[in-house]
Write a structure and sequence with these properties.
The complex is a heterodimer of chains A (330) and B (360).
Chain A: H1 2-10, H2 19-29, E1 35-38, E2 44-48, E3 57-63, E4 68-74, E5 80-85, E6 97-100, E7 105-110, E8 125-128, E9 144-147, E10 152-154, E11 157-160, H3 163-178, E12 185-191, H4 199-208, E13 212-220, E14 238-242, H5 250-262, E15 268-271, H6 279-283, E16 290-298, E17 306-309, H7 310-325
Parallel strand pairs in A: 3-12, 3-13, 13-16, 14-15
Antiparallel strand pairs in A: 1-2, 2-12, 4-5, 4-9, 6-7, 6-9, 7-8, 10-11, 11-17, 14-16
Chain B: H1 13-24, H2 33-43, E1 49-52, E2 58-62, E3 70-77, E4 82-88, E5 93-99, E6 111-114, E7 119-123, E8 147-148, E9 162-165, E10 170-172, E11 175-178, H3 181-193, E12 201-208, H4 216-225, E13 229-237, E14 261-262, H5 273-285, E15 291-292, H6 302-305, E16 314-321, E17 329-332, H7 333-349
Parallel strand pairs in B: 3-12, 3-13, 13-16, 14-15
Antiparallel strand pairs in B: 1-2, 2-12, 4-5, 4-9, 5-8, 6-7, 6-9, 7-8, 10-11, 11-17, 14-16
Helix pairs in contact in B: 1-3, 3-7, 5-7
Classes of the chains: A alpha+beta (330), B alpha+beta (360).
Chain lengths: 330, 360
């Protein structure tokens, strides 16, 4: 899994510009899928299994997009101004590097703030791509990019940009590979534009009319001082109870917990007070659907170096594979 | 591709008269009836179907003349920012709420027209002689302001009435000023487009309500229409004056005189790149001036349109205007004309093959 995870994290896919990561994921899942489609919003929709008696139509979503930048102006002196795709913390920007979809790379820095002790807002940052003027600048308004940061193998744990949410894409790919048979109609959605409020999942959920929706996404951990949260890196996949956008259906939570216990998988319960996932839009699509989420614990979310534990991912795959391979009684 | 044909469109006196009428008429979010009536009369000769939905959107269709048709929805919002009377304090003095996004600093000492009868009033302010201490540095909150209409008309205004800025439309050469040009410029453009619908297009026009308070009208309009493509035709701020410190202005949003502003990304929508390329390609081909609106915040009806049902390929195009969401906005007639030229080109050339490539 590590090698593929490395590949997936390094492919640029800012919100709205998911075509390269979509291509890579499609190659991985094609041998295992009944059918593959791409919809209007660019979601990659992978179908597996047919609904047999006791089976449900299940939508399982992990988002392909990552936070990024989009060029808003090229200055006469060649500096590139940008706007954010998705939300992030300006404190991570200075000194970071970016890579645009056209391959151009550059460094981020900022105008000198009036108050050096304060972190300036995104508008005060600039990208230097080595241009000497707007005439020879290799990027133009509307070009999108991502934070450029290599994959770091630290043994049990790995660090990279875009582990949010390529770690979950990896979990879905591996689950698709491992499912031998299922009484369920499984629709895996590698979704777009999650970082800008789950727009891809919203339209996919409408179109697919599933009985049950499960989002797989990363969740921040309570490993650093000042964050009081029960989820910790290495304590196994987290079964979501609630976040800011969704209260998981209690039946779904119970179903996940029972399966984890039966398989003797180490898991943790998640109550998240910042952020939400694709499950928010799935739950309220059309006349509503049963929804829940499985989370991969992740440190330093929305920084250029996020950290996940490989064993957490392995256990998530085991749990998800088991959940989806059996009849679902809810 | 070489096209020998060009697309000509010039604003006539009657176009400007319509713009003036639309700008001077009042249609605060939730109370768009006056605007709707004007539009209805204008488009009636050109439409095959026309209806007003439950939200108050004016929805009109001009049918395609052939079987292999392309369903194109264009939305422009009828509503404008303004006021609602909240409390009658006697003697013609009223507390009010602001409807839509208006900078508090834009409110003091503006003339207001209230209700159907357009009862005149003014948002009062303390004169500079009497300001004390820190008051000069303090932004007055709308809750501290009052609309004063004088005792004579007091009985003609009641709680719940809508108020609009009372600015009158003006033209000087290529420049126009007026209130509510956001989005009466778009409305006037969409009215004009009815006269330029090619045979292969099933033309769906949504004159939407309540855009300024959260795209509420567009959401249901698109749900009913189910188009192949959607466009929001709106107006967007040009913040293009030079910076007072002589540094390069890097946050102008868009600029006057550069033509229609095609959206790439805003707070509500990441434009469908296939449509962005389609429009900019046409603009190049037909030599129509155009610009990209700077990616950033803000939003248009597109934010609701593109997420409707299973998703609709959508892009926004806006006519630039200075001083948006104030009592007076300024725009160029040539930018309006070029926006209409771009939409005429888009209608003539739009086809379902655009969707044969995956979104990228």
């Amino acid at each position: 899994m590590k090698k593929l995870l490395q590949k997936l994290t390094q492919i640029p896919g800012p919100s709205g510009f998911e075509y390269e990561i979509r291509k890579a994921i499609r190659e991985e899942v094609t041998p295992f899928a009944n059918s593959i489609a791409v919809d209007t919003m660019g979601n990659l929709i992978v179908r597996l299994g047919k609904k047999a008696s006791g089976g449900l139509r299940v939508m399982i979503a992990a988002h392909m997009d990552e936070i990024g930048v989009i060029v808003s102006h090229v200055q006469k002196n060649g500096f590139v101004r940008f706007s954010n795709l998705g939300s992030y913390f300006p404190r991570y920007l200075s000194g970071s590097r970016v890579r645009f979809m056209n391959g151009v790379r550059g460094v981020i820095n900022n105008d000198r703030p009036e108050d050096l002790s304060k972190i300036p807002p995104v508008e005060k940052f600039l990208i230097d791509v080595g241009a000497t003027s707007d005439k020879d600048c290799p990027v133009k308004i509307g070009d999108a990019g991502v934070f450029d940061r290599e994959f770091l193998d630290m043994g049990k744990r790995v660090a990279s940009k875009a582990l949010d949410d390529r770690a979950s894409c990896m979990v879905l790919i591996e689950t698709i590979r491992r499912i031998k048979s299922t009484p369920n109609e499984l629709v895996f959605v590698f979704s777009t534009q999650e970082e800008v409020a789950s727009r891809g999942a919203q339209t996919a959920a409408y179109a697919l009319e599933a009985d049950l929706g499960i989002a797989v996404d990363v969740t921040p951990t309570g490993d650093i001082v000042g964050v009081k949260m029960q989820t910790h890196l290495g304590d196994g996949p987290a079964i979501k109870v609630r976040d800011v956008g969704m209260i998981a259906d209690p039946q779904v939570v119970t179903w996940m917990v029972a399966a984890a216990k039966k398989l003797k998988i180490k898991f943790q319960m998640e109550v998240l007070e910042v952020g939400t996932t694709d499950a928010r839009t799935m739950q309220v699509a059309r006349s509503g659907m049963l929804a829940g989420a499985l989370s991969i614990p992740c440190r330093f979310v929305h920084s250029p170096s996020e950290v996940v534990d490989m064993e957490d991912m392995e256990q998530a795959v085991k749990l998800l594979t088991a959940l989806l391979s059996e009849p679902i009684k809810l | 591709m070489t096209k020998t044909s060009s697309i000509e469109f010039k604003a006539s006196k009657s176009h400007l008269a319509l713009l003036e009428k639309l700008s001077n008429a009042n249609g605060i979010s939730g109370n768009e009836g006056e605007i709707r009536a004007i539009i209805r009369k204008e488009i009636a000769p050109y439409t095959d179907e026309i209806k007003v939905d439950a939200m108050g959107n004016l929805l009109a269709v001009k049918h395609a003349k052939v079987k292999n048709q392309v369903k194109v929805l264009i939305a422009s919002h009828m509503d404008e920012v303004g006021f609602m009377i909240a409390n009658d304090e006697g003697d013609g003095v009223f507390a009010f709420e602001v409807v839509g996004g208006v900078d508090d600093r834009q409110l003091l000492c503006k003339t207001i027209a209230i209700g159907k009868e357009k009862v005149p009033g003014v948002i009062g302010s303390k004169p500079i002689h009497l300001l004390e201490g820190d008051e000069l540095n303090h932004i007055v909150s709308p809750s501290e302001m009052r609309i004063d209409i004088g005792p004579a008309n007091a009985s003609r205004v009641k709680v719940g009435d809508y108020g609009a800025f009372a600015t009158r439309f003006q033209q000087f050469g290529n420049t126009i000023t007026g209130k509510a040009l956001d989005d009466r410029l778009g409305v006037a453009g969409l009215i004009e487009l009815f006269k330029h619908v090619p045979a292969h297009v099933e033309f769906m026009a949504a004159f939407t309500v309540q855009e300024e308070i959260g795209l509420r009208g567009a959401r249901v309009a698109a749900y009913g229409f189910q188009p192949d493509f959607a466009f929001a035709l709106d107006s967007t701020p040009a913040i293009d004056l030079p910076r007072p410190d002589d540094e390069e202005n890097t946050q102008y949003n868009c600029k006057l005189d550069l033509g229609p502003a095609i959206y790439l990304a805003d707070a509500g929508t990441l434009s469908d790149p296939r449509l962005v390329r389609f429009l900019s390609g046409l603009a190049e081909e037909y030599h129509i001036p155009y610009q990209y609106r700077q990616p950033g915040g803000g939003g248009t009806d597109a934010g609701a349109l593109h997420k409707t049902r299973g998703g609709i390929p959508t892009v926004s195009v806006s006519i630039p205007g200075r001083y948006a969401h104030t009592a007076i906005m300024m725009a160029r007639i040539s930018d309006w004309e070029n926006t209409i030229r771009l939409f005429i080109a888009a209608l003539q050339n739009i086809n379902l093959d655009l969707l044969k490539v995956e979104r990228s």
